[in-house]
Structure formats: C-alpha cells, structure tokens
UniProtKB/TrEMBL annotation:
GO molecular function, one term: transcription cis-regulatory region binding
Residues covered by the HTH lacI-type domain: 2-56
Keywords (A to Z) from UniProt: DNA-binding, Transcription, Transcription regulation
PANTHER family (alphabetical): LACI-RELATED TRANSCRIPTIONAL REPRESSOR, RIBOSE OPERON REPRESSOR
Protein name: Transcriptional regulator RbsR
Family annotation (PROSITE patterns): HTH_LACI_1, HTH_LACI_2
Claim: DNA-binding is one of the keywords in the record: yes
SUPFAM superfamilies (alphabetical): lambda repressor-like DNA-binding domains (SSF47413), Periplasmic binding protein-like I (SSF53822)
Pfam families the UniProt entry points to: LacI (PF00356), Peripla_BP_3 (PF13377)
Length: 330
C-alpha cells in the first residue's frame, strides 16, 4: 500500500507539501499541486483516516442517538441529517436506544470511544443519568433535537409544540367543534407535555369544557392511537373532534374509527401533528401540524458544526415555527 512518502518521492516534493495538497490547508502552486495529484492517482494512494484524525484531532464523524420507533417522524429527520453529513464531508454513526435507558448510556459511551466530533441526540425517553455522561465530556459539541431534558447543558433545536397544539385546537374550535378530546404522547416527554398544555390553553381561551376522560395518554406509537380512540368512543359522551399529539397515533385513530364503522372527517374530526409523508395519502388525507423534518436534520448539523468552530459561545436554542396543513380529516 502506497504511503505519503511514496507520493512525495514520485512527485519530487516534500511530504509536507503532499499533506497540504490533500488537506487543502495551505497554498500550493497549481504546477506542484498537479504533480502531487498525478502521483496520488498513479499510486492509487488513499490517506489514512486514523493518521489524519490524530493530526487534526478530528475524525469527521458525527454520532447520532435515536430511540427505536415505528414512527416515521424519526426516519424523516435522520434522512435530513444523513444528507447534510454527506454534503459536508462527514460520516454518521447511528445508534438506537431500543427505548432502554441503560442501552442509551452504553450507546453514548460507544460513540464517545469512537471519538466522534459531535453528538446529536433525538430520543423520546428522559433519563437523569445522561447528565453524568455529558459532565464527563464537557467539551464535546452536543445538539439535542426535538428533546429537552438537559436544556442548560447543550444546544437545542426543537419544534414549538405549545404553539403548534394551540393552532391545531383553535382550528377545530373555529370549525365549531366543542367536544374536543386530546390524545397525548407520554407525559415524561417535554414535547408531549407542551402539546397537552397548548390544547388546554386553546380550550380555556374559548371557554370550552374539557370533559372527564377527554385527555388520554398515548406513547407516540400507532397502536396507542387505536387504544386511546377505542376508549374515547366508549365514553358516555364521545368527542366530536380529537387532537392527536402526533400523526402516528392519528393513523391508529383512523383504524379504531374503521373498526367502529366510522370515518375521520365525516363522523369525527381528526387533527394530527408532524405531517409525516404518509399523512397526505391517508383516506381522507390528514389535517396536521407541519414540522420541517428534513430541514430540522439539516439545521441540527449546521448548529453542531457552528459549535465546533465557536466552542465558547453561549448555548443556543432554536425553535421552529409549526404550520397547520389543512386537508380533509377535520
């Protein structure tokens, strides 16, 4: 296997000149650069990634920690992260927590042992011992995506869930619905809490009663939407409209309605949250709150790279503005 010294000998230049050409970190005249590049091609030389990382103290690798979920929201965000990494010349190591706090901590340790340049964290679970890990690596750039258990320790990019839930509920109110229920996410999750608070705020401002049983906790997964809607339909006073805290649960609601011979948009109004790709293909298409998921991934990478180059800046918190997408389910 050819070495940098072999390239230098063939091009009749110093090894430092070869290094400057490869890393593009200092001016090299076009003539000399051409000689070096020709020698690299002739010898089929590939720079050693380990040697480069030891010299530059960078591995050009980003770690990302996500929860295991059948919710397409996560995969659509990850797709945006992967594309941005590719365009910027970074590798991505993706680790799944399987919903297990112990596995989450082990995955973080694994990523840190790989000497990742930075870390993206996007999980649904919350675990206090994460703070112990981050305290041990205070200089590691970390961005939390749509998850905020450690707001004062790292940069954060998130959806404005409180406002999004308000506009979703207000939309139903403006459609003259009064008996409006809410299927929440797991209430140990910050975004689920904020969406519930937004629903309550809109109902309160409209002087509408939240009837007993109208707040049902789900877990952001498809099946919990079925269970929650079945419960709501069995109430003495079933709701006429339902705000679902994410689209996955809303799709579960569609299934529960089908099982009872009912139809979203006709018998009961449904509004979701996230605007996952499949939402527009449902029957009827799902009215929902749009989150720019691929853009969210792109912005997370940009925020992480900004932290690479500006480690002493104050922590940043970026909140994206949710938008109502009106379709036919409400």
């Amino acid at each position: 296997m050819a070495t940098m010294k072999d390239v230098a000998n063939l091009a009749k230049v110093s090894t430092s000149t070869v290094s400057h050409v490869i890393n593009n970190d200092r001016y090299v005249s076009p003539t000399v650069r051409e000689k070096v590049e020709l020698a690299i091609n002739q010898l089929n030389y590939t720079p050693c990634a380990i040697a480069r990382s030891l010299k530059s103290n960078k591995t050009y690798t980003i770690g990302m920690l996500v929860t295991t979920s059948n919710n397409p929201f996560f995969s659509e965000v990850v797709q945006g992260v992967e594309r941005s990494c590719y365009e910027l010349g970074y590798n991505l190591i993706l680790c799944s927590t399987e919903g297990d706090p112990k596995r989450m901590l082990n995955s973080i340790e694994h990523l840190l042992q790989k000497r990742v340049d930075g870390l993206l964290v996007m999980c649904t679970e919350s675990h206090s011992s994460l703070q112990q890990i981050f305290t041990r690596y205070p200089k590691l750039p970390i961005v939390m995506v749509d998850w905020t258990p450690l707001m004062d320790m790292c940069d954060i990019i998130q959806d404005n869930s409180y406002y999004g839930a308000i506009i979703a509920t207000q939309y139903l109110i403006e459609k003259n619905y009064k008996d409006i229920a809410c299927i929440t996410g797991p209430l140990n999750n910050t975004q689920a809490q904020l969406r519930l608070q937004g629903y309550r705020k809109a109902m309160h401002d409209a002087n509408l009663i939240i009837h007993n049983g109208y707040e049902v906790q789900g877990d952001f997964q498809f099946a919990s939407g079925i269970v929650a809607m079945q419960y709501l339909l069995e109430l003495a006073r079933p709701p006429k409209a339902v705000f679902c805290s994410n689209d996955a649960m809303a799709i579960g609601v569609y299934q529960a309605l089908y099982q009872h011979g009912l139809e979203a948009g006709k018998d009961i109004a449904i509004v979701g949250y996230d605007d996952i790709e499949i939402a527009q293909y449902m029957t009827p298409p799902l009215t929902t709150i749009h989150q720019p998921k691929k853009e969210l991934g792109k912005l997370a990478i940009e925020m992480l790279l900004h932290r690479f180059h500006n480690p002493k800046e104050p922590l940043h918190k970026l909140s994206l503005k949710p938008i109502l997408i009106e379709r036919l389910s409400a």
